[in-house]
Amino acid sequence: MCLQTCLHEEEKKMIVQKTSVFPSSRDRIFQKLRQLETLQYIARPYASFEPVGEGAPVWEAGSTSSYHFRLFCFIPFGTHTIHIVSFDPDLVRSREKNEHVPVWNHDITMEVIGKDRTRYTDRVEIQAGWKTVLIWLWARAFYAHRQRKWMALLENAGKED
User: Fold this and answer.
1) Cβ atoms within 10 A of the Cβ of 78, count?
2) Is the alpha carbon torsion for 77, 94, 40, 138 positive or negative?
3) Cβ neighbours for 42, distance < 8 A, ≥ 6 positions apart
């Protein structure tokens, strides 16, 4: 009985979902999403992603890339692998994982709601065994932070346009 209950506990998943309205066109957001520098900017200081190996990662459907991942930019947290399932303005879908979080399924949707206004949603399914709740708590703060940083990035870029 305990074995079945314990296995069931390991299979539990939690979902983080965060939506914001960005003052930008979907095309402009999508172009920035294609750049590793954008991920690095919006993740700091909650996390850092440094590519493993030579060359810049290419994010397109079917591609896989790996990163040295650090929590709060200084705590080593393994190698984070990102497999892109879909990469277009309608849906960016990645299946991600590392040694501590075997399932990190991330979907980004962007809905045009007006001229230079886009509803942007991050949805992440997390499975990390007994660590799931802790990772979920961190992810809630991380995605709220990411969307604040997105907002700042888009507002600053708008002044440069």
Assistant:
1) 16
2) negative
3) 145, 146, 149, 150, 153
pLDDT in tens, 4-23: 444 445 568 999 999 999 99
Lowest mean pLDDT among 57-66, 73-82, 139-148: 57-66
**Contact call for residues 41 and 149 (beta carbons, < 8 A):** yes
Count the Cβ atoms, other than its own, within 10 Å of residue 141. Answer: 11
Q: How many helices (DSSP H) and strands (DSSP E) are in the chain?
A: 4, 7
In terms of Cα–Cα distance, which of 84, 89, 90 is closest to 106? Answer: 84
End-to-end CA separation in angstroms for the chain = 63
pTM of this structure: 0.90
CA gap 130, 147 in Å, rounded: 27
Residue among 100, 71, 104 at smallest CA distance from 85: 104
